[in-house]
Amino acid sequence: MPEKNPKLKIFRDYVLMTAGTVLMTVGVYFFKIPNGFSTGGVSGIGTLLGKITPVTPATWISILNVVLLLLGFAVLGRETGVRTVYCSLLFSGLTQALEWIVPLGRPLTDQPFLELAYAMILTAFGSALIFHSQASSGGTDIVALILKKYSSLNVGMALLCVDFLIAACSFVVFDVRTGLFSLAGLFAKAFLVDSVIENLDACKYFVVITTREHAEDISAFILTSLHHGATVEFGQGAFTHEDKIILHTVCRRSEAPSLQRRIREVDPSAFIIITTSSEIIGRGFRGVL
After folding, report:
1. Whole-number mean pLDDT of the chain?
2. How far apart, in whole angstroms, are the C-alpha atoms of residue 18 and residue 15?
3. Is 203-277 a domain of CATH 3.30.470.20?
4. pTM for the full predicted model
C-alpha cells in the first residue's frame, strides 16, 4: 500500500539521513583520519592528501565533495538527487566544523585495532542508514552513477578496485601497519554495510493455512489494520482431506508480532510459516526496478 502520509515519510527519511551522516562523520573524523585509515571513498582520499599536503583532510573532503557534486550536476543533471546533495554537504560541513571545534593531532587511544573497529562500525551504520533512505553521501557514489550511465562496466567492482587502490596507497603515504589496517577496514566495511542494510530492510513473509471462515477475518486485519495485501489459495489437507485456505502476505518486521497475535486469536489451530526477506519489491515496499 502507498505511504499514508508522504510528508511524514519524507521527514522520517531526512531524520535517518541526518543520523547516518552524523555517525559517518564521527567515524571518519575521530577514528579514520587520526589513524590514517584510508578505506576508500572521498574520506580515504582526503586522509591521504591531508598527509602529503599542507591542506587538512577535512578541507580536502569538502573540496572533493563539492567538485564531485558539480560534476554530477553537469553530467547527470537532476539524477544526482536532492538527498545526495544534502548528505554530501552535511558530511563536508560537519567534518569541517569538528576540525575547528575539536582539533585532533593524534589518535584518541593507543589501540589502533579498537579505533579501526569503531571507525568501521560507525561509518557502516551511517552509510546503511543513508542508503536505507534512498540517498547516498555523494563522493565516489557520483562517479559510480557516471560510470553506470556511460559504460558497461561492473560499477560495484570498479568502485571496489578504486577503493582498494586508495587503501593500498596508505602503505606508501603512511606505513605498512596503517596500510594493513586500511585494507582490513575496507573489506570489513563492505560486509557490515550489507549486513546492516539487510536488517533494516528485513520484512516477514507469512504463509497461513486456515479454514475458510477464519481466513476472512485474518484477511480483513491484513487489509484494514496493516494496510497490506494478501493472496488467497485453495488447498486440501493431505491427512484430514478438509478444505483449507492458504494466505500469503508480507509485512514489515515491526508489524509481524501483531499479525501473528491476531492469527492466533482468530484461529488457534492455524498453521503459520514465517520467513525473513530483505528483497520485497512491489507496491507498499520497494519500488519496481
Report:
1. 84
2. 5
3. no
4. 0.71
